[in-house]
Amino acid sequence: MDNFTYKGSELFAEGVPLSRIAGEIGTPFYCYSRATLERHYAVFADAFSGLDADVCYSLKANGNLAVVSALACLGAGADVVSGGELKRALAAGIDARKIVFSGVGKTAEELTRALDAGILQINVESDQELETLRRIAGQKGVTARIAVRVNPDVDALTHAKITTGTRGNKFGIEWPRVHEVCARAAAMPGIELSGLAVHIGSQLLDLEPFRAAYRRLGDLVAGLRADGIEVRNLDLGGGLGIPYDGGPSPSPQDYASVVRETVGDLGCRIILEPGRMIVGNAGVLVAAVIYVKTGAVKNFVIVDAGMNDLLRPALYGAAHAITPVREPSADGKLEEADVVGPICESGDTFATACLLPPMSSGDLIAFRTAGAYGAVMASGYNARSLPPEVMVDGGDFQIVRERIGVDDLMARETVPDFLGHARTENGGPGD
Ligand code: LLP
Fold it and tell me: Which pTM value belongs to this model?
């Protein structure tokens, strides 16, 4: 459920017509609904009530300061994967003691920043990372709280590019060595082993892989405890899928039942790292039709958003439902067309054989469920702008990231002196 609905014959975000925002800031733009965001967080957090559980929102899904601040106000923690995300989480007011740091390639500088910030735990993913952290903690005379991220060798049954928990993936400590690595970490000076972490993938629509991974984790806890190694925190990762196409998807309550059944009675503090589930449905990408083109074998609706603005269809073949901002009449005819962007690649296709009411230049459309992995994955490819982002709250909206245009990006570029003589009056290289 979200707060993007037709009122009269117009698509609104809460109390604001999307066409009004388009009129004021131009297209394309991302629009987030504060009410939807807060509702999703509440539904997810409530599903775990009664358990000692922390919801550490995964910033990689959407790290906009407004989004993260809204969640911080509700008591969310954060899962971060870079020094940049750590900075964002802290700037948005997330309590450092509720921040976990994951990722296979944390640099010494990033580990140092995490130690300085006093975060809840660093999820260690390799022997070398453990060694680096031990060294840095030793130099600083502090103790690093860690969890060992395990690779449980469980197939998440999702897209190959976002599967992370099988043997061939780069993530976590391989299953046969986990016990040994935990034992070593527990005995290391400067290291405090506080728990275990796992994340098997993203956009899981089947709960069984979670069940399998968490059972393995439970067995591991028992084995470690038998050896006198205490495990206090269990970080269960993110990954709960959402219905992009309106199909069935597991509810947070169903997911919480799996958590309760598998690891609920181990006396551990549970850490959850949802990203997409919290913010996916809370955002849309609004674009305008540039042209409608009749091709040799199909028709194209060419819009002013491209794969640089919303990469998921091009990268994963993901489908985002497309809603015309002006409500089509119930008995109106629909026409089949591919909805494409202006980028010079055929992969810049959002939908094939999409049924839409007749569209014309200037008409607005909304790509639904674009709040997660949308704006954060945008680029300036084809010298296009990074799209602006707005947040709606009731009848108000505010720009929460300005459009970052080609002038902003060019201002960061320099033509080296040794080419300088070739500059023309236009400021560009001459002949
Ligand atoms: N925790 C860790 C360690 C992760 O690697 C991820 C996502 C999450 C939590 C959050 O997962 P979520 O609840 O959002 O599924 N760009 C892709 C998704 C990449 C996910 C990467 N890791 C997409 O657009 O589908």
Answer: 0.96
